[in-house]
Amino acid sequence: MIIGKDTVVTLHYTLSDAQDNLIEKSEQPMVYLHGDYANTLPKIEEALTGKAVGYQVTIQVEPEDAFGEYDAELVKIEPRAALPEPLEIGMQFEGAPEAGEANAMRVFTVTDIADDKVVLDGNHPLAGMALRFALNVVEVREASAEEIAHGHVHGPHGHHHHDDEDDSDQFRTIQLQ
Question: What pLDDT, on the 0 to 100 scale, is given for residue 96?
Answer without folding.
Answer: 66
